[in-house]
């Protein structure tokens, strides 16, 4: 389940964001947690695979562009959980949270979003 990021989750969220090394080259400022904490149009979500365990396994960072578009800036999952389709689950939950919005990608996230869209279409 995705939930809004809280400052008490700062260290784990920073750690998960650091897994996406190629995103640092595209938008280094978006790798900073402060960016999400200080700007109203930016939202960071934490993903819990097992809520009972209370461990964050992934993060999603988005920008609310306007009344019908979100930009996916960051998506990162704990390497132990990769390959299980949980990144797509995170995006499904994000879309459920914003049902009237189109999720668009950046240069760094567009390819992953395209895979997610193809999965939905099949």
UniProtKB/TrEMBL annotation:
- Please name the InterPro entries in this protein's record: Acyl_CoA_acyltransferase, GNAT_dom
Q: Superkingdom of this entry's organism?
A: Bacteria
Record Pfam families = Acetyltransf_1
Coiled-coil blocks: none
Span of the secretion signal? none
**Annotated ranges, domain N-acetyltransferase:** 3-122
Q: How is this protein named in the record?
A: GNAT family N-acetyltransferase
Protein source organism: Candidatus Enterococcus moelleringii
Q: What is the lineage of its organism?
A: Bacteria, Bacillati, Bacillota, Bacilli, Lactobacillales
